[in-house]
Structure formats: C-alpha cells, structure tokens
UniProtKB/TrEMBL annotation:
Record's keyword annotation contains Glycoprotein: no
GO cellular component: membrane
UniProt entry keywords in alphabetical sequence: Membrane, Transmembrane, Transmembrane helix
Protein name stated in the entry: EamA domain-containing protein
Family, similarity comment: Belongs to the EamA transporter family.
Domain EamA: start-end pairs: 181-315
Amino acid sequence: MWYLTDCILEYMTQRTSPNPWLGLICGVLAAVGYSLANICLRWLTTLDPVWVSFLKAIPTVVLFAPIALWQIRTGRSPMPKLSSIFILILAAISSQLLGNAMLQWSFGVVGVAMSVPLCLGTMIVVGVMISKWLLYESLTRWQRWGTASLVLALMTLSLAGRGAVQSVVNDPSGWLLIGAGIVAPMLAGISYAFLSVAIRRGVSGEVSMFMTTSLICAVGMGILGPLSLYTTGLEEMALTTWPQYGVLLIAGLLNAAAFVALTLSFRYAPVIIGNAANSLQNPLSALAGVILFHEAYSINLIFGVVLTVLGVVMMGLREKPLSTHPEELEIASAVVEDGR
C-alpha cells in the first residue's frame, strides 16, 4: 500500500512529457471541480462566512500536509527557509481574511453567478498591474487586450449588481449593500493577486506546491478558527447540522481535487490551454447561480461572463516562448485559483 502511494505521489511531482489533450481534460476537470465547490459554498450562505472558510480549509491540510512532509522526508523538496515561510504566512493571512471570507460573504449577497467572474477578473487585472508597475515585467500585445477585456467585464458585471442583490437577499433598498456585494469579490481577487506575486517572487522554485497550499490553508485554520468564535459564537456553531458539515467536507475535497487537476493541466499542456479550460468555471457558475439558486439573469451578466472568459484566454496567448520556469507557472496559477 505504501509502495503504491509512493508511486502515485512520485508521478504527480515528476516532470512529464507534453500532452495537450490530457492537459485540456485536466483543465476542464479543474473548472468543474471549482464550480461544484462554489455551488456547495453557495448552499451554505446561511452560515457565518468565516466559519465556513475555516472548515473548508481542513480537508486540504489533511490531504496535502502529509504529501508535503513526504516530499521533504524523501528529499524531493527541501525544507523551506524561514523567510519563505514568513512570506507565505503574511500572504496567507491576507488571502484568508480578504479572500476566502469575503468571497464566501459575497455568495450570499450578489450570488455565485456574479461573484466568481468578478473575483477572477479582478485577480488577473491586479496581477497584471503589479507585474507591470511594481515588478517591471513586460506585457505582450495579447495580455494588453486581455486586460482591456477583463476591465470591461468588471464594469459590465457591476451594472448587474442591483438585480443580483435583489434576487439573492430580496432587499431592493440599499445601494450600500449593492456596492459592498460588488466590492467584496473584487477585494478577494486583489488578495489572491498579491498571494500569487508573493508565491511567484518569494517562494517559487523552493517550496513545493503541496507545501505551499497546505501551509496557506493551515494559516487559514489558525486565523479563521479563533476569529469564528467571535463572529459566529459557540451557540451558532452548535447549530451547524451534519448535512451542512457534509457539504463543507465535499466543498473542501472538491477544492483539493480541482487544485491537483489544474496543476496537472499546466504540467501537461501550455498555459493557454489550462487557462482556457479553467475559465469554464465562469459560465458554469453563472448557469448554476441562475438555474439552481434563481439568481438574476441579465444581459450584463451574460456579457460580463463572456468577456471574462475571453480575457482569460487572451492572457494566455504568447507572442514568444515563456522564459518562466514551469514550476512557477504551476504554483502561481494553481495555488491562487484554489485560493484559498
């Protein structure tokens, strides 16, 4: 049994020969996994978002921490430096508080159909701004067009905010709630963008993807667990039903599985294929929000989702070969999309 486990883990962490079709399948599976996880989390909007985010992180730590320890024990990955751990902890605190908790809250305000493309679009746009103006990285023509498409998508999706709030919380009144519902997933996207930069510039090439993800989620448990005692309280925690715990477990497992699928997608296929396949979670989340949860259906939502997918695809197009190492792409793309 242990020999079989070692073989599986070694296969997942080894370099593999390119296989675009297998990469495409893995990318689609990642999109489906993240979409199903978001559907599960949308069902849990009656619970405190901090409490939900805390519980969602547990399966990832349970699954990935042993793999990270196995990599260190067998010499496949070195023990991370204290400076790398410090960078990850700081980035993880931001992504857990401003990322996961805010995104979960937005599911109960503007819905999953609108929150997912807002978060993803903002994450990529802010990532481009950081790369251009802080890291002095050059942008290709396709990346500029993709950024423009994503900015237009964010503006279009914002126009659908009032209808989204009314369909989710049945509150036609406050513009403050509408604004907060729009800003919350965008704040999540900003935190994920900075997490991506911290990983790419601070620890990529040194810390394995499993160590990175398990550490980020472990920090989330350490921060969100005590915080949920204040935001939720022991009495409300006790009211969490076993079916809700089951949905949370499924959401956490889907998140972890989608992370692995996305990582394998970038390992087998070019980035454009992985990005294009994974961007399917935008229309899938929109369909789930409209059909399953009766969220607002408007031309602005449709146009915004289409522009987001188009922008993600264009961001992956390259005019010349990438100089970035494959490991950096895997960590920067897969960890941030898991986010979490």
